[in-house]
Amino acid sequence: MSSWPSPSTPSPSAPSPSTPVVQTAGVVKEYANARVLDGIDLAVDRGHIVGLIGPSGCGKTTLVRLLTGITAPTSGEVKVFGSDPTRFPASTRSRFGYMPQLPVLFPTLSVWGNLTFMSSVYGQGLRHRRRRLGELLELVELNGDRRKLLAHCSGGMQRRLALAAVLVHRPELLFLDEPTAGVDPILRARFWDHFRGLRDRGATLIVPTQYVGEAAMCDQVAVMSAGRLVTVLPPTELRRFAYGGDVVCFSMDEVLQRADVQRLAAVPGVREVRRTDVGLRFVVDDEARDVVAIEQALAGLGVTTASVEPFDPSYEDVFVAIIERDRAARGADAASAA
Amino acid sequence: MRTSFWRTPLQTLTFMRKEITDAVHQPRLLITLVLGPFLIMGAFGLGYRETPKPLDAALVVPEASPLKSQIDTYTKHLGSYVHVVSVSSDAADASRRLQDGDVDVVVSFPADPMQDVLNGQQSQITIIHTRLDPIEQTAISFASSLGVDQMNSAVLAAIIGEGEQAAAPANDALAIADGATTKLQAAVKANDAAAIQAALADLDSSSAAIAAAARETSVLLTHIGTDPATSADASQLVARAGELAATVTQIHQQGDRVDAGTVDALATSVSSMRTQFQGLAAISPNVLAQPFVPKVQLAVPGVHRITDWYAPAAIVLILQQFGLAFGALTFVRERQLGITDVLRVAPVNAGPALIGKYLAYLLLGGAVGATLTALVVKLLDVPIAGDLGSVALVMSLTLFASIGLGFVLSLLCRTDGQAVQYALLVLLASLFFSGFFLSLGQLRGAAQVIGWLLPVTYGMQMLRDVMLRGAAPNPSLVLGLAGFGVAMFVLALLGTRRRMSATET
Prior knowledge:
The complex is a heterodimer of chains A (338) and B (505). With 338 residues, chain A is an alpha/beta fold. Helices cover 35% and strands 25% of the residues of chain A. In chain A, a hairpin with a 2-residue loop joins β8 and β9. Chain B is elongated. Chain B has 19 helices and four strands. Chain B is 73% helix and 4% strand. In chain B, α3 (71-76) links the parallel β1 (55-60) and β2 (82-88). Chain B has three domains: 11-46 and 305-501, no CATH class; 55-158, abc type-2 transporter like domain (abc type-2 transporter like fold), CATH 3.40.1710; 167-289. The longest helix of chain B has 33 residues, at 134-166. Chain B has a four-stranded mixed β-sheet, with helices on both faces.
């Protein structure tokens, strides 16, 4: 594996490690009276990978454009490196990299030509450029295609080149809008290894993605829905957030009566009980503590438990659950407001 | 930091290199830009008629018209303008042939021109055509006027010929006067009173005839509007005829003592009048009818053909459109590709991006201009009378101004389709307002202002002066074009800075 190019050393003017690299407060963005972002409060610490996950049109890309300074908020405050990104001087702009959602390089330039262009735009000297660009091409597996015109490259190749281009100047902060779209699973895994490598060297990455499974690769996952930030959590806590607690599945040979299920729902620590094909699924406050109580309750009912397993839904299921919960909550809010 | 010091020149060069690479990867475009105009100019030069094609004409002459018998004489004068396809008295048939496109014009002669003239009116020759092109209409009108002038001249020459015939009796009277003077000199010498009286009698009758002929000739020449020298001669002739009569009267009054000196003076006067009359009668009627002919000379050395005139204009026009199209498309394409967003967040300012593009298009456009110029000079024999430095200056300034105009247009466009439309509009305006086809002098004030808003107007005048006249570029035009270019550069810089730096709201 090639060595991952490390981010540049944080500049002396950078905020202290305790200060979030990215911070937003009550950010609202409206286009033609349509509210695209609605009160976003987000803080991202240095050396973290934050995944932005949400359905299409939920405002992920708009949020990234606000953070890069391409667009300004209608109201609220955005701080990146402690400053308003719309007023970044050139020196601050060279500290971050932005990879847009669609591949945006020059189709009439070669793979190598595009990389040297971006390298020059970021003012990189000619001396070490060749070696560095070679490393990047090695990373994105385009070394053999360096003479190929971008117009003749596949969509996936263009995506990989765009990623190499954004890394060319060793940014401290990276905004990677769906960096692995169109990339095969093996290379995608390699990319994430490298993203984590960057993170370990102190870089901060904000990664909007449609691949919900990639949430597991992030340190924090910000779930967005309809322009709102639903939650920001480590991936391990998303499941608990989605279902309102720990989820445990009990398999049993017999089918319980409705009254028995209601008795089980009244066990302390149990929030919800649902029937499954093979038994019951419990949402509990604390899996370690409450499983014992449920087992005792079942024994009291004369029911033998075949197995007890923690529920391990996919991130897609978790994501769907969170979004559905959010939509339901907003629906209820709207109803009560009406 | 070292990187910061080199960043701006590095960025400028990389934008320049990117644009050149971009263009080099489109070889067909570059070849078309060079070969296209050259082939068009070559085809134009080969296909252009130095003399206009004569108009195919159907002549309609009424049967009763006295012009019928002389139509061949009249039409031979129109040879270079008109090719007579048919002569008939059938006006309807001629009109049908005109509508069918068999002939270009129908020329209808009057049935009774003499009656019109006797009524104090000019007799009308009607020329009918179906051409809608204003330039062709002007040409037909011009050719018609020339043709009718030729016919009028022929009539006038005939009248003058008749006038000269009328002067013949004066010659006879002068011959008699000359003989009588000789006899008078001999009679005075011999002191022969009878002979003196006989000679004086001859002089009396002949001097009256001479005076009458002189007056008629003078009146005739005055009315037909002959040249000033001939008119002066005629007036002098009348005066001399009066003097002749007075001298004869004076000799009568001397009675028997006629002064020999007076008689000698009389002889000299008669002799010179005779010479003068013969001179007047000997002038060709055609010369008298058309005493002036134009002789047009070009004060610029060398043989100049139509391609010589249009080649510099075409080169400048191509350079303008080159700069305009590349300038107009570059930012629009970057915006459409989304690269503008990437550049917005990058540490690059408008200056390096814009200057890099300027340099690239100046180099590419310069190469196109140089190649095109070499081709027209070598293969179409278009001259370069001036120095190559001036040619390079004009081309560079034209490109500089045109690229700037393109950049400014690109700031107004959202799609490359719009940019192309703007470029085409500028091309159309250039054809009408720059002096490409019509000279600027033919345009009124407001239209001339439009012309001066186009780089091609300045470049065209200067390149024509340099290549064809060998003159240095007009300093006013150089300053005008440079000022135009600088104004466009400033506008483009401000616009690009706004586009690259400003945040969307």
